[in-house]
Design brief:
The chain has 117 residues and is mostly beta strands. The protein contains no helices and 11 strands.
């Protein structure tokens, strides 16, 4: 199993970034895909999740209306479109894949997002 995140970087407040997570080694279309983030000195937190069946989504309250998670099962890739970025969005963003909601699943190596002027 491999999850490879990309798309992070430095962006000014109010800007946008799109993160990608390319997956391999499992049946992507059947897995729940999530984005988590971890800021310095804080615990890792769920940002957004997209389910396999029907593609329903959930978001952390702090990102609702600004971030959008999506998946392309043909490309085995999950995306996180981040708009109206704020300094408090600064964190390492991790991709997670799990077969069941209660399983720990697999993690990518993370990509740094820094929002600063």
């Amino acid at each position: 199993v491999q999850l490879v995140e990309s798309g992070g970087g430095l962006v000014q407040p109010g800007g946008s970034l799109r993160l990608s997570c390319a997956a391999s080694g499992f049946t992507f279309s059947t897995y729940i895909m999530s984005w988590y983030r971890q800021a310095p000195g804080k615990e890792r937190e769920l940002v957004a999740r997209i389910f396999s069946a029907g593609g329903s989504t959930i978001y952390a309250d702090s990102v609702k209306g600004r971030f959008t998670i999506s998946r392309d099962n043909a490309k085995n890739t999950v995306y996180l479109q981040m708009n109206s970025l704020k300094p408090e969005d600064t964190a390492v963003y991790y991709c997670n894949a799990r077969g069941q909601p209660w399983s720990a699943g697999y993690w990518g190596q993370g990509t740094q997002v820094t929002v600063s002027s």
